[in-house]
Amino acid sequence: IIRSIQMQNNIFNRTFIALNMNRLFGLFLVFIFFTSCVQEEVVTFTSVSKIHEENASIEINIPVAQGETVLSKSINKTINDHIANMLNFSEEPVNNLDLDQAIEQFDQEYSSFKSDIAESALVWEAIFDSEVIYQSSEVICIALNSYLNTGGAHGNMNITLYNFDGETGELLEPKDLVSDLDKFTEFVKPYFIQAIAQKDDEGIEEYFFGDPFHLPANIGINDDGLLILYNVYEIGSYAQGITEFTIPFEDVQAFLQYQ
After folding, report:
1. What string of H, E and C letters represents the secondary structure of the chain?
2. Percentage, residues of the chain above pLDDT 70
3. The model's pTM
4. For the segment 228-257, what is each residue's pLDDT rounded down to a tens digit?
């Protein structure tokens, strides 16, 4: 009888332990699930379009970060400030310039131009297209393409890559994205040579206006790796256009500080 009772107690204890282990394991899975959700939570975006054609032609297509977080506010302010300053005729960039006021000012400048040169058929044009090209919990990269035509042989196009820290919303410089810029510059050079070889028959000596090879003002991250982008006139003539290429993650991993 005693042995029977002991066996029953052992079975009961094993059952009790198993039930509690299952319960703890279930709680552990719930914890991991919610922790992962918090770690991977990133800002969401909606697309916003504006068309202004009262006098000049202005078209704006941008992603707007949702919510009132520091990250969302930083992204939206940076994009709005960029577009407002492109439309503004001040020599120095202005912080917190109202976008609607900048649109109105651009329109008024065009009206003044038409008043002075009534015979001109030119309609000033400004187009801004922006998209999120990479998004993770660590970094968000947004590409903003600007095109302005206020006269001259052709309009001016410029692409700006903005990288934001995924938590603080801080704008990241190239030195924040990659380590050891001097070594990284030498690492990038063969990729640049390969990129221009695919684009035209000119060699690297036809670029950089006689200066040594250097990194562009715009470095960003896309789904395939690190994006290197030289704008028109940055290293060559208008005819040479934009030079851009992506270095795969597996090649550039040793330098990356964000991903």
Report:
1. CHHHHHHHHHHHHHHHHHHHHHHHHHHHHHHHHHHHHHHHCCCCEEEEEEEECCCCEEEEEEEEECCCCHHHHHHHHHHHHHHHHHHCCCCCCCCCCCHHHHHHHHHHHHHHHHHHCCCCCCCCEEEEEEEEEEECCCEEEEEEEEEEECCCCCCEEEEEEEEEECCCCCECCHHHHECCHHHHHHHHHHHHHHHHHHHCCCCHHHCHHHCCCCCCCEEEECCCEEEEEECCCCCCCCCCCCEEEEEEHHHHCCCECCC
2. 84
3. 0.81
4. 999 999 999 998 999 999 999 999 999 999
